[in-house]
Write a structure and sequence with these properties.
By secondary structure, the protein is α/β, with parallel strands linked by helices. It is built from 15 helices and 19 strands. It has 2 domains: 19-289 and 494-515, Aldehyde Dehydrogenase, Chain A, domain 1 (3-Layer(aba) Sandwich), CATH 3.40.605; 293-479, Aldehyde Dehydrogenase, Chain A, domain 2 (3-Layer(aba) Sandwich), CATH 3.40.309.10. It has helices spanning 17-31, 73-90, 95-111, 113-124, 128-151, 186-198, 213-225, 240-249, 262-273, 303-315, 332-347, 366-382, 412-415, 431-438, 454-463; strands spanning 36-38, 40-42, 45-47, 52-57, 60-69, 165-173, 176-180, 203-207, 233-235, 255-259, 284-288, 293-297, 325-331, 384-387, 402-405, 422-428, 446-450, 468-471, 507-515. The strands form 5 sheets. Strands 14-15-16-13-12-17-18 form a 7-stranded mixed sheet, with helices on both faces. Helix 7 links the parallel strand 8 (203-207) and strand 9. Helix 4 (113-124) packs across helix 5 (128-151) and helix 5 runs parallel beside helix 6 (186-198). Bound molecules: nicotinamide-adenine-dinucleotide (NAD). Residues 180-185, 189, 207, 209-210, 240-241, 244-245, 248, 259-261, 264, 267-268, 288-291, 322, 417, 419, 445, 487, 491-492 line the site of nicotinamide-adenine-dinucleotide (NAD).
Length: 516
């Protein structure tokens, strides 16, 4: 198989009239498809249910983007059956052939980029660039894992030989597992988690977040079009606490690949640890959970660059990223000067329906709306409001980009994941105190330091305890194949998506010795 070397898929910055016009056309075409109903897909068959999930537009929640089947436990059982049936043949496919199907899916996605982006704009309120970056990331995961999988084929040549025996060790897949995704990167994360598992021969049941059932119906259509055999992926839209937890506890679930909140992750970890009747293995559980990510700025930093990094890291997709900057930790001598710049930039950001391509669109759903508003209240009691702080009147879930100043490091706003456009600014005496505050959290996903001091950069390289650390740039936007992504502490099991070892987690090694 002759492939071009892996390279990150470019995303569109939507700065040219031609690209904006193309997006306007895609948005019109997607809007014309609003209100359709999408089935689940079990063993290649499209299945409807009586009850439906309804997916709405967070910019205008009375608009129904689409509806989907809502799986019951019986459907979950059937999906797991279908996955195990498909496993028997899929695991025997040549690696090249499995990778080829994935690459075909990526090629179709590339051709349908703008349409896929438009679904993200309407279903979860991304602006054009954020939507484009997500579709590019989805393509990256596929392209990267399709190539990586081929490196794991065959025996492990670097093991020692032993006289009188012929020895061989090689990888085999695990079986049928479960992928559960959150709503904030529905396409990239569900696709990455799923392709990572299936490309090396596993099969999966895919449970998307309830708010993203249309976007993912489009993605799984593409896998079918690419020629993925029935049952390798089974698309199971449903409610997490119903079918998700049922499959987590199921004795025939071999592994669980989960991205979502700490609360759900804890529940899944506990439930999956229990070996129930009929179960023949310890489930492998992969967890990528929340963050309380910090940007630390010291007195040697370029303050304009730092202010820009904060704005990009804190407000990209309305702060609804696990990697978003939600703590801004600043050395006292430059605190006022930096906050002035951050506030000035924040005031200039536009907040509007996502299809108008603003800087910030709505937060994703009513629960998010309520949660972020609660933290705005908490912020008033724990800090000084410097900018924003309001939820706009009207039905769309629009919340102003907000900064609270002089928040104490132990305050709720500085410890709990808000997952919205709210920054807690914390004043520290010096860099050393700043580093202590940085690591004072149960999470450990991303972080950034703005500094021109080489020795401090090296201290942070060692001691800033996060899975993804950045210097003198924003703390979001990890690239697959460049910055393997995953967090420490209660952020999860540090799976490092988009990294060279990711696929090994979905395989087990078999060692075979034959006496000569
Ligand atoms: P969530 O935990 O509420 O839901 C995630 C998924 O879990 C959904 O599909 C949901 O239906 C399902 N679910 C809910 N209860 C379940 C249960 N009992 N058993 C099985 N499945 C269940 O999270 P969310 O609100 O959709 O997503 C936001 C969270 O995801 C944030 O905390 C964010 O930081 C995190 N996240 C982490 C990463 C990462 O890579 N670390 C990436 C994106 C998002």
């Amino acid at each position: 198989m002759h492939l071009l070397p892996y390279a990150n898929e470019p995303y569109d910055t939507y700065t040219t009239p031609a690209s904006l016009e193309a997006m306007a056309t895609a948005l019109r075409s997607v809007r014309a498809q609003f209100g359709q109903t999408y089935p689940m897909v079990i063993g290649g068959k499209k299945v409807m249910s009586e009850a439906l999930l309804v997916s709405t537009n967070p910019s205008a929640p009375s608009e129904v983007v689409g509806k989907s089947a809502r799986a019951t436990r019986e459907h979950a059982e059937a999906a797991l059956d279908a996955a195990w049936t498909a496993f028997e043949s899929w695991k025997r496919w040549k690696q090249e052939d499995r990778s080829r199907v994935m690459l075909k899916a990526a090629a179709i996605m590339r051709r349908r980029k703008q349409e896929l982006e438009a679904w993200l704009v309407y279903e979860i309120g991304k602006n054009y660039v954020e939507a484009s970056a997500e579709v590019a990331e989805m393509i990256d995961f596929i392209e990267y894992y399709a190539r990586q999988a081929m490196r794991h084929v065959g025996g492990l040549g670097h093991l020692n030989a032993y006289a009188g025996e012929e020895n061989e060790s090689f990888y085999i897949p695990l079986g049928a597992g479960l992928t559960i995704s959150p709503w904030n990167f529905p396409m990239a994360l569900m696709t990455g988690m799923t392709v990572g598992a299936i490309v090396v021969g596993n099969t999966v049941v895919c449970k998307p977040a309830e708010d993203t059932v249309v976007s993912l119906a489009k993605v799984f259509d593409i896998f079918e079009e690419a020629g993925l055999p029935p049952g390798v992926v089974n698309y199971l839209p449903g409610v997490g606490a119903e079918v998700g937890s049922y499959l987590v506890e199921h004795p025939r679930t071999r592994f669980i690949n989960f991205t979502g909140s700490l609360a759900t992750g804890k529940r899944i970890n506990e439930a999956a640890a229990k070996v129930v009747d009929g179960q023949r293995w310890f489930k492998r559980v992969f967890l990528e959970l929340g963050g309380k990510d910090a940007i630390l700025v010291d007195e040697t930093a370029d303050l304009d660059a730092a202010a820009l990094g904060v704005i990009q890291g804190a407000y990209g997709y309305q702060g609804q990223k696990c990697s978003a900057c939600s703590r801004l930790i600043v050395v006292d001598s430059v605190y006022d000067a930096l906050l002035e710049r951050v506030v000035e930039r924040t005031k200039k950001l536009s907040l509007a329906p996502a299809d108008q391509n603003p800087d910030l669109g709505p937060v994703c759903n009513a629960a998010q709306d309520a949660k972020v508003r609660e933290y705005l209240e908490i912020g008033h009691s724990e800090g000084k409001l410097l900018v924003g702080g309001q939820r706009l009147d009207g039905e769309g879930f629009f919340i102003q980009p907000t900064v609270f100043g002089d928040v104490a490091p132990g305050a709720r706003l500085a410890q709990e994941e808000v997952f919205g456009p709210v920054v807690a600014a914390i004043r520290v005496k010096n860099f050393t105190e700043g580093m202590a505050v940085v690591n004072n959290t149960v999470y450990g996903l991303t972080g950034a330091l703005f500094s021109r001091d080489r020795s401090r950069i090296e201290i942070a390289r060692r001691d800033f305890h996060v899975g993804n650390l950045y210097f003198n740039r924003k703390c979001t936007g990890a690239l697959a194949g460049v910055q393997p992504f995953g967090g420490f502490n209660l952020t999860g099991t540090d799976t490092k998506t988009g990294g060279p070892d990711y696929l090994l987690q979905f395989m087990q090694m078999k060692s075979v010795a034959e006496r000569l």
